[in-house]
Amino acid sequence: SSGINAEYGGEGVEISEEVMAKITNLEKQGYGNLPICMAKTHLSLSCDVSKKGVPTGFTVPVKDVVLSAGAGFIYPLAGTISTMPGLPTRPAYYGIDVDTETGQITGLF
After folding, report:
1. Which of 23, 27, 47, 94 has the smallest C-beta neighbourhood within 10 Å, fewest atoms?
2. CA distances from 52 to 7, 20, 26, 46 (A)
3. Contact 54, 16 (CB under 8 A)
4. Which tens digit of pLDDT belongs to each residue from 48-98?
5. Residue 60 contacts residue 67 (beta carbons within 8 Å)
6. 54-59 own/partner pairs: CB under 8 Å, 24+ apart
7. Nearest to 32 by CA among 70, 86, 73
């Protein structure tokens, strides 16, 4: 929680037993030294969008912890946050074509 205090002005972090067990499991699997990339709302330094400006004294609720092994980091999900969906296995550009005679583009929508 020292990063929450020093970087964000918060009082601490709230982690459930379930999330703590997940963190312990990641450490046992050898991922304990990966960098952390916090996923939280961009609308406030806290996880509460109603706290504008530079709030202090808040607690950051960690709802989940996700391993991004390929990218080489772990990201805690703080508060209510949606993450971007993954990409399909077949990129959409395979279905796009340009008719060289007419210049008509097909497959965009």
Report:
1. 94
2. 16, 29, 34, 9
3. no
4. 788 888 888 888 889 999 999 999 999 999 877 777 777 777 888 899 999
5. no
6. 54/9, 55/9, 56/9, 56/10, 57/9, 57/10, 57/11, 58/9, 58/10, 58/11, 59/10, 59/11, 59/12, 59/13, 59/14
7. 73
Token pair in block for residue 92: 């959409």
Q: How far apart are CA 81 and CA 47, in angstroms?
A: 9
